[in-house]
Amino acid sequence: MAKRAVAPQRGIFERVKGSGIWWIRWTDAEGRKRREKAGSHGVAEKLLIRRRGEALEGTKLPDNLRTKSITFADLCRDAITHSGAENSRKQTYELGLRIDRLLPVFGWRPADSIRRNEIVSWLAEQANERDWAPTTRNRWQATFSLVFRVGMDNEKIERNPAARIRRRTEGGGRVRFLSDAEEKHLQAAIMRRFPEFLPHFLLSVHTGMRMGEQYGLLWNQIDFDRRQLHLLRTKNGDPRTIPLNAVAVRALTDMRGEPEPAGTEPVFPSVRTGDALQGSRGWFSTALEEAKIADYTWHCNRHTFASRLVMAGVDLRTVAELLGHRTLQMVMRYSHLAPEHQASAVDRLVNFRGQNGHQNGHQGVRRENCKNTQTRKQLKIR
Q1: What angle in degrees, to the nearest 10, is found between the helix axes of 72-86 and 89-106?
Q2: Highest mean predicted confidence (pLDDT) among 44-58, 72-86, 301-315, 360-374
Q3: CB atoms within 10 A of CB 175
Q4: Mean pLDDT calculated for residue range 297-313
């Protein structure tokens, strides 16, 4: 006998289509959106009427009705698992650090009790106390959004309170890159204090890799014969192949040593544990301080890489591909020209029409005006 079709009704739904198990959705007396497993469609109709009546009467219901309440901490665990499958180890590690800060504040809360205004208030408070830049604030907002989005994908919650929070405008500002003199001072400082880390720095400046991409490398990702480096997982989710110049090849060769390491070993292992290093923490900031280089971070090595490519005449599309950007919009920030090259460009106008370019230019304009006048007269005669 064919199953009788049930007409859709607001507030009643099947979590699994065709299962015959119906749930109800309503707003309780405290303004919270609730859902509850009912059973058959008839039972769901009666239960929904009852719950709506209790809400009108102001009856306060327990947090746990028939299903276990999903906490924010439960969603965070799912988000970490999701990130581990989709993102790099460094990205997952950094996500875990942010979540560790969120758990004492929100971890115990039922996920569906957290409101948009609470997230906005927390972000504003932290940004004020910690003097966050817009980029940092947006990163924390994205953490909230990811946690709730994964919860919705897993059908554990029905809404994402962080979905429509307005992001802060991230000003482009001046992109910091090394001058030739600064790089010489920095290399000298690294050689004095941390000579074993010089290949780390050289590989970064000559490939433009992100820190997580570089420090997550395994030896089987490097093809010395073709002089290529293969990134299997990048920030935007796409694999990327990076060509290696002579300096980058030499840096990798110096680290490889003898005997050659196994293919699955990390290129940048910890001396103590043998596991891959998480980054350049400690030694790089010390070297920068000793070299008296201010306002520079490891990520600025990407700016140095891109700026030098542009100054060498490489087109923006190629620079974007080497940096792993899908569009030219992002590469415009990384690939600006150095001030001395901009000055050199405008200086060329001085000799554009000879040594007396300014005078010759005006003479050319006058000649062109004369030609236009003669043409207009000829047209009138005709």
Answers
A1: 180
A2: 72-86
A3: 16
A4: 89
Asked if 187 and 198 touch (Cβ cutoff 8 Å), the reply is yes
29 and 78 inside one domain: no
Tokens for 327?
A: 């569009």
Contacts of 125 (CB under 8 A, 6+ apart): none
The count of structural domains within the chain is 3
DSSP for 185-207 reads: HHHHHHHHH-GGGHHHHHHHHHH
pLDDT of residue 171: 54
Nearest Cα to Cα of residue 228 among 244, 216, 204, 214: 244
Let me know if residue 94 belongs to a domain.
yes
Structural domain harbouring 263: 180-340
Same structural domain, 131 and 256 = no
Examine residue 67 and state whether it is found in any structural domain, yes or no. Answer: no
Q: Is residue 358 domain-resident? A: no
Pairwise CA distance, residues 364 & 372, whole Å: 12
What is the rounded CA–CA span in Å between residue 372 and residue 367?
Answer: 9
Q: What is the pLDDT of residue 20?
A: 78
Cα 128 to chain centroid, rounded: 22
Together in a domain, 53 and 124: no
Relative to beta strand 240-243, strand 12-14 is: unpaired
pTM of the model: 0.56
The C-alpha atoms of residue 53 and residue 46 are separated, in whole angstroms, by 11
Which contacts qualify for 103-110: CB closer than 8 Å, 24 or more apart? 103/72, 103/73, 103/76, 106/72, 107/71, 107/72, 107/73, 107/76, 108/71, 108/72, 108/73, 109/71, 109/72, 110/63, 110/69, 110/70, 110/71, 110/72
Exposure pattern of 325-351 as b/e (b: 16+ CB <10 Å)?
beeeeebeebbbeeeeeeeeeeeeeee
Beta strands in 157-245 (DSSP E): 222-223, 228-231, 240-243
Query: What does the mean pLDDT of the chain come to?
Result: 82
